[in-house]
Amino acid sequence: MPDLIFIILLVFIASLIGDFITYFLAKRFSEKIKNYLQRFKWYTKNEAKTHKSLKEHEFSFVFFSRFMVAGASPVVNYLYGFEKLNQKKFILAVILGETVYSVGYPLIGYLFKDTWNELVNSVQYTILSIVLILFAIYVCYKILKFYKKRKKNNENLSKT
What we know:
The chain is mainly α. It has two domains: 2-111, no CATH class; 115-160. It contains seven helices and no strands. The longest helix is centred in the C-terminal third of the chain and has 44 residues, at 116-159.
């Protein structure tokens, strides 16, 4: 049990350090990066919409990125530092999210050490199934939208 507590503390502290470094680096160099990105149409076109979306979901986006999607937290750290969003909310969300991450995963590993492979495979297949189902729904939605637009265009052409 002392090893588990040590691992939890180590993961928590290392995660916090990494999160804060990426956030503050992005915040520090955001003006230089923004000046460069202003050259691109895709950036200037979507900048306000992206900032608004990030600001609306500021806390929850940061909190859930710590443990829900593997590898998302560094990207989120850079985005929030780059956009210079509320630092206090960011720090609170990171601390709470990293607490869940730092305690949750080592505790699951400790409790299910004998059946770890089966548990991981089960979780991976479940997540993969959900992602594939959501992707299929998205594709169907896009196809239906395309055909509705096509039908509307054909109706407009036949009227003229």
